[in-house]
Structure formats: structure tokens, C-alpha cells
Amino acid sequence: MKKKSLSWIKETVETVVIALVLAFLIRSFIVETFWIPSGSMEPTLMVGDRIMAYKIFYGINKVKRGDIIIFKFPLDPKKDFVKRVIGLPGDTIEIRKKEVYVNKKRLIEPYAVHSDNWDTGFPRDEYGPVKVPPDSLFVLGDNRDSSEDSRYWGYVPKENIIGKAFLIYWPPWRIRILKTPLIKMVESEASLIFL
After folding, report:
1. 164-182, pLDDT tens digit by residue?
2. Phi, psi of 153 (to 5 degrees)
3. 185 Ramachandran zone, left/alpha/beta (phi>0; psi -120 to 50)
4. Residue 68 domain-assigned (yes or no)
5. What is the model's pTM?
6. What does the alpha-carbon distance between residue 144 and residue 110 come to, in Å, rounded to a whole number?
7. For the domain that residue 149 is a member of, what is the CATH number?
8. Residue 14 falls within a domain, yes or no?
9. Options 83, 147, 150, 164, the catalytic residue
């Protein structure tokens, strides 16, 4: 009886240790969960949503315009932020009357919302043009009039990227996969004049 009891304890301890090691490895290198504390990404991500982000093999070379990424806030790396990638390394970004232009082409952004009609000027509604530095990203919140993002604090360096958000898993009625939208760009009137 004592041998069975010791064997059971040993197996239980081994199972718990293996589970903890696997959980640590998965969280550190493969997938991590995050909680959304603010409305800067509404309506895509709501306050209180819990999301999953994959980390493995996701870095600056894999980032696409339109990805929702998790990153360490450049001004306080202890904080994690979530925003949408708008500018890739080398892109020229400009915002005119709340419209975003990348390399002189206007982005068509069905995910972006504006909560007011007035133009507050720089930096919220009028910005740039600025060139995104190498190994950096320009990010914006979907809730454009209520988001502190690259317009206010600059670029996200590649070493701050944690991963790409791919799933809302809580609350249950909001469960869905977060897909990167097909980003369309159209020639702006200003760029057509200079052609």
C-alpha cells in the first residue's frame, strides 16, 4: 500500500511539473493571452475582451499592414499595448482630415471609426508626412479619436513586438478569429495632380 501511495505521489508530481514546464514554454514562445483594458481598438476589440496572440516566428519580417499586434509600449516597456499596424519600415505616413495616407495613397479602412466630426489638427487628425524608420512600425488604434498611438508617442521598434492577435476567446458571445483585412489603397487627389 505504501509503494502504491508513493508511486501515485511521484506520478502526480511529475505530471504537475511537466504541465508547468509546458505551460511556461507555450506562454513564453508560442501563444499568450491578453486582456483589453481600454476602448482604443473599439469596435474591433471591446473593453474586457480577452484575446490570444501567437508569438512563435512572428517578428518584423512577418508583420503585414492591417495586423493587430501586441507590443511593449515604447515609453514604458512594462506595459503591453495592442494596436493595428498601418506603416511598415520605409513607408511614408500622412494623415489629412482624419484620412490616412501611406506612400501618398489613401487607405480604405472599414475597421476605423471616428467618434466626432471636428478636426482637432496635429497630431490626431493632421499628421506628417513622416517616414517610418527601418526596423520599426507605425500603429494606430481603430477608435481613431480616442487612441493614443504612434501619432502621439512614435514608432514601435522591432524588439518590442510580442505577437499577433488572432482570437477573441472571452466573453463567449464575442468569440471569433481576428483576420488581417485586405487593405486597399487608392491614389489620392494630391498624388494624381503630381503624376
Report:
1. 999 999 999 999 999 988 8
2. -125, 5
3. beta
4. yes
5. 0.83
6. 12
7. 2.10.109.10
8. no
9. 83
Q: Which of 4, 7, 28, 40 is catalytic?
A: 40
Query: In this structure, are residues 89 and 135 in contact, taking their beta carbons and an 8 Å threshold?
Result: yes
Whether 115 is catalytic is no
The number of domains in the chain is 1
**Active-site residue flag, 3:** no
Q: 4 vs 43, which has greater pLDDT?
A: 43
User: Is the link from the previous residue into 171 a cis peptide, with omega within 30 of 0?
Assistant: yes
Domain extent for 161: 32-193
16 domain residue, yes or no:
no
